[in-house]
């Protein structure tokens, strides 16, 4: 399994987009990666927009970000909440500084905007936050997946297969 030695943070908060969390987590685990579900509280059940539950493994303060190879930010309404946690902003900034893969889909771009890491970057997202993404200094593309170095971005659930292929390929390079 090509990702057997990889450790990934998957951020969790209420009203995540169910498919945009679960599909990436299961896809990476299929390839052997360890994916920790991380939220404000450990061992808490959070619910997606459509009611699919997830129980977190760790809370933000328990995470040593240096021990991880990548981070995933799901979409839905969760990113608007996630970007308010200083720990989440620090995780994303750290991954950016270390040039470790950052996966963001749909509304997850809000977290990268709040981390102030998009200036000069090529990205995509749900068209609903296109203006937010461009106002943060990025160039937005209406494509299923946009890869700019270690940042892998995608638009919405139908784009999950090419998004996760690109993310897993990037993670395997590290």
UniProtKB/TrEMBL annotation:
Segments forming domain DJ-1/PfpI: 7-168
Organism whose genome encodes this protein: Paraliobacillus ryukyuensis
PANTHER family with a match to the protein in the record: DJ-1 PROTEIN, DJ-1_PFPI DOMAIN-CONTAINING PROTEIN
Pfam families: DJ-1_PfpI
Keyword Transmembrane helix: no
GO molecular function, one term: peptidase activity
GO biological process: proteolysis
Name recorded for this polypeptide: Protease I
Similarity comment: Belongs to the peptidase C56 family.
Key words, A-Z: Hydrolase, Protease
InterPro entries reported for this sequence: C56_PfpI-like (IPR006286), Class_I_gatase-like (IPR029062), DJ-1/PfpI (IPR002818)
Top-level taxon in the UniProt lineage: Bacteria
């Amino acid at each position: 399994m090509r990702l057997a030695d990889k450790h990934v943070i998957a951020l969790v908060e209420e009203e995540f987009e169910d498919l945009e969390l679960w599909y990436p987590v299961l896809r990476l685990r299929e390839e052997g990666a360890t994916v920790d579900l991380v939220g404000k509280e450990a061992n808490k059940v959070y619910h997606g927009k459509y009611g699919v539950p997830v129980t977190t493994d760790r809370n933000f303060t328990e995470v040593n970000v240096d021990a991880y190879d990548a981070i995933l930010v799901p979409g839905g309404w969760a990113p608007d909440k996630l970007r308010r946690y200083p720990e989440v902003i620090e995780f994303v900034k750290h991954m950016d500084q270390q040039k470790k893969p950052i996966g963001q889909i749909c509304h997850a771009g809000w977290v990268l905007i709040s981390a102030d890491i998009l200036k000069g970057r090529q990205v995509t997202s749900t068209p609903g936050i296109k203006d937010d993404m461009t106002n943060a200094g990025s160039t937005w593309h209406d494509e299923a997946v946009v890869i700019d170095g270690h940042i892998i971005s995608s638009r919405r659930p139908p784009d999950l297969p090419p998004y996760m292929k690109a993310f897993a390929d990037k993670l395997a390079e590290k």
